[in-house]
Please model this.
Amino acid sequence: MAEPIDPNTGLRGESPSEIAEQPGLSPSLWEGETEIPRTLGNSPPPTSWHGWLAIVVAVGSACVVLAVGSIATWRIPNPQNAPQAQLGQAVTLASNHSSSGGLPAEEPTDKVPQVPPSPHGAGQSRQLAVTSSSGAASESQASESKPSGDDNRRNVPRPQPEVASAATKSPAAYRWAINRTRSALVARDLKRAQRQLEIAARHADSPVQNDQLAQFRALNDQLDRFWAAVRAGLKALEPAEELHVDNVIAAVVESGPESLALFVAGSRRDYTLANLPTKVALLLVERAASEDAPANQVFLGAFHAVDPRGDLNRARQLWESAAAAGESVNDLLPFLDPKALAIEREPIPDAQQVAAAEQTIERKFAGAIEAAKTAQRKSQLAASLISAVADAESSLDQYALLKQATRWAIAAAEPQSALRAIDERARWFEVDAWTLKSDALTQALESSVPTVARQIAMSALELSAEAMAQGRGEPAQALIITAQAAARKARDRELIKRAAQRRLDVEKLEKQPGQVPSASE
Model:
């Protein structure tokens, strides 16, 4: 535990009165174990010696003062007992060392200046390399400036620079951050994508990964330009103005910097940038930016490459045209591959680690869990857990949050919400979604009322058909059994009949594979 700093002297350790009581020590010369001001050029008179970091080594009758930049100082004999000429020589040596390649006085010696990650552009990997090399240079410089000799100066500990090492990098963390970047870009959440790229940059440790980071940064930059053009188009809209999208006419009700309300087919529809229809977004950009400009073709192609309803062929045409005009698109071309933005599923985390993560989540949401006594409160808790997934700090936390969200959705008698949470887990992790869904519906049925039981029966029938279509006979059978039980609990004769017929159909298909009937049959 650090000793208190004396308010009068600014020193850490003994007070002036305690120093004065120690034989052979002068309060004016005692530096204590303190942080000395790092301004050697403005040192006080020799009678105070404040501002100096020094080790005095006695060699015969002479004293040599070496400014080594240490974070600690030593008790020294009263220099008033030494010849004045020796003191002057010591001060001269210390000044020469500081001006001839010693550690800089302006910065603490126990830290290396860190280069902040670039928010955009392909130069990030180069900046990271500069940070690493500068850290190594600082350590080398300190080593070269260290005096040599066989005296006890070798025993003085030197602070080590805080340089990131390969041991701190995690391939799993890099992969997870890149996956989250893909998801954020498709969801049009560019700020979240940027945060994930910063995380990925801290774990990138190969030229391939650095190249991939440059590609994603270039894509994010171009998408940012695209949505800036959309905002410009929104700003130019007038109330009651008509927008012609294909064969549909939509009237503008109102528009804001990131929102739009349209009157379409007799009803009002409100949009944000996150759910703005693709064709409407392109129409707004067309009104704000000419497609003939090569720079505009680059960001238009980026949108087509990322948007689920975009046109990859159109992206290719736009980028080829822009490249012919001299625009750089090389970092964007990998996204013409339909799989470039597909999430790479993670292995299922260790069960014990998941249990520990769930306990942490339960502590974090302790208040909401305690209040979850009604179906409504349980539903709100499930929604909060889903929302927290976006800010999860690791894939383990993400898995545990989705698992807990499924549990509370079932407890809230919301089977559809539980199924969506399972779908989200299956999107990110190598789980058996069919088995999880069958188990979830079975659990939901245990405490369901007839109206919810009917929903469970219908969902189970539909899922059983999909499972059979994918050759998953075992979960299909389990889903049909759940559908039958739910139909009986709902006292719905039509559903009971459909579930029984579906079970017979599946049994026949297992013996003679063929086309699986749909859930509506």
About this structure: The first strand starts at residue 55 and ends at 59. DSSP finds 18 helices and six strands in the chain. The CA atoms of residues 241 and 252 lie 5 Å apart.
